[in-house]
Amino acid sequence: MTAVLGGRPEGVSTLHFAMDEADGIDTRQKLVVVGNGMAGARVVEEVLERGGGEQFAITVFGEEPHGNYNRIMLSHVLAGEEHEDDIVLNSHDWYADNGVVLRAGVRVDRVDTHAKVVHASDGTTAPYDQLVLATGSRSFIPPMAGLHRDDEQLLPGVFGFRTIDDTRALLAAAAEHEKAVVVGGGLLGLEAARALQGHGLAVEVVHAGTHLMNQQLDPDGGAILRQSVESLGIVVHLATRTTEVIGPDRVRGVVLADGRALDADVLVIAAGIRPVTEVALMSGLEVERGIVVDDQLRTDDPDVYAVGECAQHRGELYGLVAPVWEQARVLADLLTGADPDAEYHGSRTATKLKVAGVDVATMGVNRPERDTDEFLVISEPRRGVHLSVVVRDDRLIGATLLGDTRKVAFLTQAFDRGAPLPQERIKLLVDLSDGAEEVGVAELPADSQVCNCNGVSKQAICDAVAGGCGTVGAVMDSTRAGKGCGSCKGLVKQIVEWAADGDVVEDPTAGWYVPGIPMAKPALMTAIREQGLLSVSAVFAALAPGGQEDAKSKMALTSLLRMIWGADFVQENDAKFINDRVHANIQRDGTFSVVPQMKGGVTTPAQLRKIADVAEKYEVPMVKVTGGQRIDLLGIRKEDLPAVWADLGMPSGYAYGKSFRTVKTCVGSDFCRFGLGDSTQLGIDLETRFQGIESPAKMKLAVVGCPRNCAEAYVKDVGVVAVGGGRWEVYVGGAAGASVRKGDLLATVDSPEAVIELTGRFMQYYRENANWLERTYDFVPRVGLATIKQVLLEDSEGICADLDEGMQRSIDAYTDPWGQDGRTPATPGQFRPALPLVALPEVPVR
Amino acid sequence: MSVTAQTTSGHVVGRVEDVPPGEGRAFVAGDVQVAVFRLRDGSLHATQAACPHAGGPLADGQTDADVLVCPLHLYAYRWRDGSSTSGNAPVQVYPVHEEDGHLVVQL
Ligand SMILES: Cc1cc2nc3c(=O)[nH]c(=O)nc-3n(C[C@H](O)[C@H](O)[C@H](O)COP(=O)(O)OP(=O)(O)OC[C@H]3O[C@@H](n4cnc5c(N)ncnc54)[C@H](O)[C@@H]3O)c2cc1C
Ligand code: SF4
Ligand code: FES
């Protein structure tokens, strides 16, 4: 049985409020709510807040067995950023504590509006005086051949993305599969795509529109969004549909309208939503696209109301929560009589894409509609930035922020509350700071809701600050403000700053090298040197607050200390990541992969024979040639590692480390008819010199014999290109991974020795100055090529000799780890299996 | 793998020396696989051996006084109650103590 979210132990999903039933003299009116989603539950909360618990005996029917949860956060749950328990808004206990009967897991089939009774799928009935329909929406599943099995069920591997159960199923599928296709390039589709990608799947998005998020963005904005999404590694297919699902037993792929086929073992359908209106239809209520309601949220039956996504108000359907909150307030005012004249006049909607790495916020219209509308656009496609605002009669009626959402807090306020706009309209989009405070955080009423998703008011944020939360992050953690869709984060930050009156600390850990020690890298290195801290535990004891060790800091510290101290570093096995403890790369099933050294990608028949023998002897499930020109033995059991290394008799290739790994080479002048330099030999020499050197992140090098670049040297951390006449170009900061960046030309030198010297100097400079896990392709642009050139080529800081010396110290300290630990384990049970007994997905055998 | 025996107070899974300070090792107690850790301060902790996230080998994880970090995707779990600091499902924690040099785990 799957767990009930916000549930009670042991399968209790239905609770009855016993008191009244027992003596049968409940004089309260009966309020029945159909649908326990964000709207239904919110109506109940608002009614209770107005003292409605005295007026009404409340019963809520929910088709889902769960308590009430924050549906918006499912994107975060799918991304693995939040746990499902953390998105519970009202647990089953909450209903019980508030005297509300929750009929969880029970669907309502129809309403007899004459007898005023609802009929549920379990055969029970419930009488009502007032009835609220809050049945929400369901995923729209566009027609495609092969989508359903004979029994009408979706083909295994096909998922909607609407409920916690969908999300759980998707998470389980993501753990087992490699390729996903997402149908729909709107908000939901893009969030699903990014989340799945985060689980390591290759993801393609198929979108029928001619640009992404076409509901919210104009074509220019959509084009820029596409760039940003593709730069994350998500493939986008526009203006086409999926017409067929390839099966038959489970999803194997999809066919597009243009005849192309895409492989997929997970298919997510996020092609839009459709209001759930069956109950209303069956009960004879007026339904068009949604359940039709008036300004008092009444259907054509005076005692039946509808709220949320199932409701159609003044012709509009909403697919966001802000309108849900507004409707719930109005309805609660009406039901309880708190304000018998309350009316709902429609909502202005703003949306924000919750995808890390792509900032999109939109509100209202995205282009001018009347001749008199003011329209301001700033578009910088190359930077992925596109900003626009539409102003009518001095009021903001629309804004689009793509790639730069710094102004979102201010614009949201102006949009929601009609705050006055600056005369210089450009200030709506960019900061032209003249010292004048634009956003009147101070004037914002205390009870105004800042975070719509989690219902946090300005007052609650101020209270958190008063209660001792000193950082924006701490306030967000304690109030959950800003933890829903994230669009209010900017405003939360401003309020925190205002409430703390200058006392806020920017998240202090941001500048630290490791989370457990409050120091930036230079200060940390100085302290380690001055105090002679030779081991990780010594560093914690001397520099961490309270001497507390921190698991997540250990690996970075081990690397740093080894660089600083070379052979004098005192190793501690528990301070190393498992890869470094057993000198192999842990795989998803807990086995390891082993890559012997193969300098410059050159090997011999004898080595190949040895590798083949080892692979057979240990039944290695997969032998793979890597992108770095080496041979990877995958799926080796931990306990076999020492024997595998011994039998190989080759040194470790460091495929597992945050370290220098390999030098890829082309054949160069030895055999190639274009070769201008001996790239193979230079690659071997580089690899020999820098083997095993640890660094903040992995380093991959390449050397090619001419600018034809057969070994892709332009996209390596250090790439070397022979250009003729004995000259070599040295490029740094290239990447061909999740992001692609051509390296920057550091220098052209005229001998292999000069290449080796400059490479070592650059690597040492990077080792000493980069943040933990910062690849050179982020480091080089951050520091700036000009600075790096000055430091390394002109010795502007006078540190070149130190850099050379520091690198030499590490080189001198090199020993082959397989040789050492293979002979005698470093600690008892170093190679004892830690594999669980439960069956795990295995690395496929080919 | 060591033979396990059941005592009144729990399952004997191995000897204290089997778990070097600061590290974890996996054992079988009854038909349950557990990971036992000995921190640098000498304290003992035990959890289920497979990570609730995707079955990672928790005994290969890294530790400090508060948490255990799974080696596969680096989700962290508190010793105190097994809850995750990173929004994941909690891990099962078991009481573990030393008796005459033996590790005793209560399931
Ligand atoms: C992954 C995801 C991300 C989202 N992100 C955002 C966002 O960032 N910002 C935003 O504003 N909005 C977002 N939304 C939309 C938002 O979640 C919805 O607008 C909101 O949940 C609508 O509330 P509702 O109560 O009308 O419908 P729902 O929350 O869908 O609730 C309807 C409930 O009624 C139940 N039900 C239906 N029929 C019956 C019946 N006959 N008997 C009993 N029960 C019944 C259903 O099972 C369901 O639990 C997102 C939605 C999803 C799925
Ligand atoms: S990069 Fe130039 S030298 Fe090297 S293999 Fe290619 S063509 Fe030949
Ligand atoms: S398996 Fe443990 S964190 Fe993923």
From TrEMBL, chain A:
Binds 1 [4Fe-4S] cluster per subunit. This is assimilatory sulfite reductase (ferredoxin). Keywords: 2Fe-2S, 4Fe-4S, FAD, Flavoprotein, Heme, Iron, Iron-sulfur, Metal-binding, Nitrate assimilation, Oxidoreductase, Thioether bond. Its cofactor is FAD; [4Fe-4S] cluster; siroheme; [2Fe-2S] cluster. It catalyses: hydrogen sulfide + 6 oxidized [2Fe-2S]-[ferredoxin] + 3 H2O = sulfite + 6 reduced [2Fe-2S]-[ferredoxin] + 7 H(+). Its EC number is 1.8.7.1. Catalyzes the reduction of sulfite to sulfide, a step in the biosynthesis of sulfur-containing amino acids and cofactors. It is an enzyme of class 1 (oxidoreductase). Pathway: Nitrogen metabolism; nitrate reduction (assimilation). Residues 657-795 form the Nitrite/sulphite reductase 4Fe-4S domain. Residues 30-317 form the FAD/NAD(P)-binding domain. It comes from the Bacteria. Siroheme binds at residue 710. Residues 350-416 form the NADH-rubredoxin oxidoreductase C-terminal domain. GO terms for biological process: nitrate assimilation. Residues 450-497 form the BFD-like [2Fe-2S]-binding domain. One of its GO terms (molecular function) is nitrite reductase activity. Residues 586-648 form the Nitrite/Sulfite reductase ferredoxin-like domain. Belongs to the nitrite and sulfite reductase 4Fe-4S domain family. It comes from Modestobacter versicolor. [4Fe-4S] cluster binds at residues 666, 672, 706, 710.
TrEMBL record, chain B:
Residues 11-105 form the Rieske domain. The keyword Iron applies. Pfam families: Rieske. One of its GO terms (molecular function) is monooxygenase activity. Keywords: 2Fe-2S, Iron, Iron-sulfur, Metal-binding, Oxidoreductase. Its EC number is 1.7.1.15. The keyword Oxidoreductase applies. Coiled coil: none annotated. This is Nitrite reductase (NADH) small subunit. It comes from Modestobacter versicolor.
